[in-house]
Design brief:
The protein has 69 residues and is mainly alpha-helical. Helices cover 80% and strands 0% of the residues. It has three helices and no strands. 0% of the residues are buried.
Protein backbone atom coordinates (compact mmCIF):
# COMPACT_ATOMS: atom_id res chain seq x y z
CA UNK A 1 0.00 0.00 0.00
CA UNK A 2 2.79 2.41 0.84
CA UNK A 3 4.45 1.68 -2.49
CA UNK A 4 1.34 2.55 -4.48
CA UNK A 5 0.76 5.75 -2.49
CA UNK A 6 4.39 6.82 -2.90
CA UNK A 7 4.00 6.93 -6.70
CA UNK A 8 2.00 10.14 -6.28
CA UNK A 9 5.10 11.91 -4.95
CA UNK A 10 7.31 11.35 -7.99
CA UNK A 11 10.94 12.25 -7.26
CA UNK A 12 10.14 12.85 -3.58
CA UNK A 13 8.95 9.27 -3.04
CA UNK A 14 12.00 8.54 -0.90
CA UNK A 15 11.04 11.40 1.43
CA UNK A 16 7.56 9.90 1.73
CA UNK A 17 9.08 6.49 2.47
CA UNK A 18 11.32 7.95 5.18
CA UNK A 19 8.33 9.73 6.72
CA UNK A 20 6.28 6.53 6.66
CA UNK A 21 9.09 4.57 8.32
CA UNK A 22 9.55 7.26 10.96
CA UNK A 23 5.83 7.41 11.71
CA UNK A 24 5.70 3.62 12.01
CA UNK A 25 8.64 3.57 14.41
CA UNK A 26 7.15 6.32 16.58
CA UNK A 27 3.73 4.62 16.58
CA UNK A 28 4.99 1.18 17.64
CA UNK A 29 7.49 2.62 20.13
CA UNK A 30 4.71 4.68 21.73
CA UNK A 31 2.36 1.69 21.66
CA UNK A 32 4.88 -0.34 23.64
CA UNK A 33 5.22 2.26 26.36
CA UNK A 34 1.50 3.07 26.42
CA UNK A 35 0.69 -0.61 26.92
CA UNK A 36 2.68 -0.59 30.14
CA UNK A 37 0.82 2.48 31.35
CA UNK A 38 -2.60 1.14 30.33
CA UNK A 39 -2.11 -2.40 31.71
CA UNK A 40 -3.77 -1.63 35.08
CA UNK A 41 -6.82 -0.17 33.32
CA UNK A 42 -7.28 -3.16 31.04
CA UNK A 43 -7.21 -5.64 33.91
CA UNK A 44 -10.92 -4.90 34.26
CA UNK A 45 -13.42 -6.55 31.90
CA UNK A 46 -15.41 -3.32 31.54
CA UNK A 47 -12.43 -1.57 29.95
CA UNK A 48 -12.18 -4.30 27.30
CA UNK A 49 -15.89 -4.03 26.54
CA UNK A 50 -15.62 -0.25 26.13
CA UNK A 51 -12.60 -0.69 23.83
CA UNK A 52 -14.46 -3.26 21.72
CA UNK A 53 -17.49 -0.97 21.42
CA UNK A 54 -15.33 1.98 20.35
CA UNK A 55 -13.50 -0.16 17.77
CA UNK A 56 -16.83 -1.50 16.49
CA UNK A 57 -18.23 2.01 16.08
CA UNK A 58 -15.12 3.11 14.20
CA UNK A 59 -15.38 0.08 11.89
CA UNK A 60 -19.05 0.79 11.20
CA UNK A 61 -18.30 4.45 10.43
CA UNK A 62 -15.51 3.45 8.04
CA UNK A 63 -17.79 0.92 6.33
CA UNK A 64 -20.51 3.53 5.95
CA UNK A 65 -18.03 5.98 4.50
CA UNK A 66 -16.84 3.40 1.97
CA UNK A 67 -20.40 2.49 1.02
CA UNK A 68 -21.75 6.02 0.66
CA UNK A 69 -18.64 7.78 -0.68
Amino acid sequence: MIGSVSTKFGADAYVFGFGAMSASFVFFFSLGYASRLLAPIFQKAVAWKILEIVVGIIMLLLAAKLIFA
